From TrEMBL:
Pyridine nucleotide-disulphide oxidoreductase dimerisation domain segment(s): 391-500
Protein name: Dihydrolipoyl dehydrogenase
Entry annotated with the keyword Metal-binding: no
Source organism: Acer negundo
Record keyword NAD present: yes
Superkingdom field: Eukaryota
Cofactor note text: Binds 1 FAD per subunit.
GO cellular component: mitochondrion; oxoglutarate dehydrogenase complex
Length: 510
């Protein structure tokens, strides 16, 4: 506060000398001075906590650390907080998924509800502008939270020079040293590259380029049938692209429950998405106007050619730990670059911690957030905990697919005697009323105790419906516990209740 007051007084005096000192001018000028003073930490100031990376894990850890009374600095190279998730990942992709779904509904479903208009067209620049607005608003919102919680925000690329010092190269090439008693690496992950394929973000794109295409490609080939590939394929497929997904494995989304996965693939195929499974890309030709991919069976065999206007490389992500100086201070990593930490998120070097995508566990933004909170709670002398077996996952297509806990295949592999309860949304009143009834709820529970082991939902808004199951699994609830909870009628969540009834006894409405 003292620094801010000094900045305002200085601003007012400077503007007074120019003869233009209005209170708003003084505030604007002092605001910039105050921001600058917050933006670059002095090397002589030691922090309790320094976080390298301002993504979901890093910024949440910074805010929580400050709330716990720890002097905190967060270093972010991007120049905008929120990391990949907010800037070029979760948030912009969900914005485009929603916008493209609205267009698809207007073309294919509105007339069934008595809503008709002579024509519908895509205004791609407007769609992109809406996405960008959402991103910028949220980024500024995090900066506001930093100010509110007195987190120092340093823009620049940080790397270790000792276990308690980080050298930061700023946007203009300036250098400063940030000191901390505890330093958390939260640098997230980057796109995994494929041999022989160069991403130019024009014709061969990563998820970043796929979020910013200037026109709708006639033919889009997606390499990789994971969450990101299917979501981005859905966006452009709804807007008119012919989408073909090439996947090396025998199944899409291999971590998904097998029964749900099969239904999910059929749903996407009904939306005209094509799949080439057990297939690998062995060559890329960009000499013409488009892209020619040479493909062959994963096990080897006859080669064929696949043409596209745009190719999306979506073969997974890799931890971003290179160039951080980890080797200089002796931090141990595994063969893919992940930092090895203990249950308190501490690396083999005392005082150096890691969270999120740079450590083992699911590469999900919400997992990184939980890591961040737990890590700083440990630093503050409290207890933190994250159970990676109880982290939900969501594919934001339509219908969405959400899950928590174990798949039926995993339970079977563990040798646990189990029961399965299922309920289709075709028998759910709300789903039928809104004419959006494709999907199913599947519950896997221990046969002897009825404890819920896993829940898998394919449905509109499955990503919202799953959290009742997440809470139940976290508290070791039984399927009967869910079944005996009164659910409002008519709601989509009644399908979860009915699936629970089917697990321990019998459902009512089927």
């Amino acid at each position: 506060m003292a620094m801010a007051s000094f900045a305002r007084r200085k601003a007012y005096l400077l503007l007074s000398r120019k003869g233009s000192a209005s209170s708003s001018d003084a505030f604007k000028y002092s605001y910039s001075l105050t921001n600058f003073s917050r933006g670059f930490a002095s090397g002589s100031d030691e922090n309790d906590v320094v976080i390298i990376g301002g993504g979901p894990g890093g910024y949440v850890a910074a805010i929580k650390a400050a709330q716990l009374g720890l002097k905190t600095t967060c270093i972010e190279k991007r120049g905008a907080l929120g990391g990949t998730c907010l800037n070029v990942g979760c948030i912009p992709s969900k914005a485009l998924l929603h916008s493209s779904h609205m267009y698809h509904e207007a073309i294919h479903s509105f007339a069934n509800h008595g809503v008709k208009f002579p024509s519908v067209e895509v205004d791609l620049p407007a769609m992109m502008a809406q996405k960008d607005k959402a991103v910028s608003n949220l980024t500024r919102g995090i900066e506001g939270l930093f100010k509110k919680n007195k987190v120092t925000y340093v823009k620049g690329y940080g790397k270790f020079i000792s276990p308690s010092e980080v050298s930061v190269e700023g946007p203009e090439g300036e250098n400063t040293v940030v000191k901390g008693k505890h330093i958390i690496v939260a640098t997230g992950s980057d796109v995994k590259s494929l041999p022989g394929i160069t991403i130019d973000e024009k014709r061969i794109v990563s998820s970043t380029g796929a979020l910013a295409l200037s026109e709708i490609p006639k033919k889009l080939v997606v390499i990789g049938a994971g969450y990101i590939g299917l979501e981005m394929g859905s966006v452009w497929g709804r807007l008119g692209s012919e989408v073909t997904v090439v996947e090396f494995a025998s199944d899409i989304v291999p971590t998904m429950d097998g029964e749900i996965r099969k239904q999910f693939q059929r749903s996407l195929e009904k939306q005209k998405m094509k799949f080439m499974l057990k297939t690998k890309v062995v060559g890329v030709d960009t000499s013409g106007d488009g892209v020619k991919l040479t493909i062959e069976p994963a096990a080897g065999g006859e080669q064929t050619t696949l043409e596209a206007d745009v190719v999306l490389v979506s073969a997974g992500r890799t931890p971003f730990t290179a160039g951080l100086g980890l080797d200089k201070i002796g931090v141990e990593t595994d063969k893919v670059g992940r930092i090895l930490v203990n249950e308190r998120f501490v690396s083999n070097v005392p005082g150096v911690y890691a969270i999120g995508d740079v450590i083992p566990g699911p590469m999900l933004a919400h997992k990184a957030e939980e890591d961040g909170v737990a890590c700083v709670e440990f630093i503050a002398g409290k207890h933190g905990h994250v159970d990676y077996d109880k982290v939900p996952g969501v594919v934001y297509t339509h219908p969405e697919v959400a899950s928590v806990g174990k798949t039926e295949e995993q339970v079977k592999e563990l040798g646990i005697a189990y029961r399965v309860g299922k309920f289709p949304f075709l028998a759910n009143s709300r789903a039928k009323a809104i004419d959006d009834a494709e999907g199913i709820v599947k519950i896997v529970a221990d046969k002897e105790t009825d404890k819920i082991l896993g829940v898998h939902i394919m449905a509109p808004n499955a990503g919202e419906l799953i959290h009742e199951a997440v809470l139940a699994i976290n508290y070791d609830a039984s399927s009967e516990d869910i079944a005996r909870v009164c659910h409002a009628h008519p709601t989509m969540s009644e399908a979860l209740k009915e699936a629970a009834m089917a697990t321990y006894d019998k459902p009512i409405h089927i």
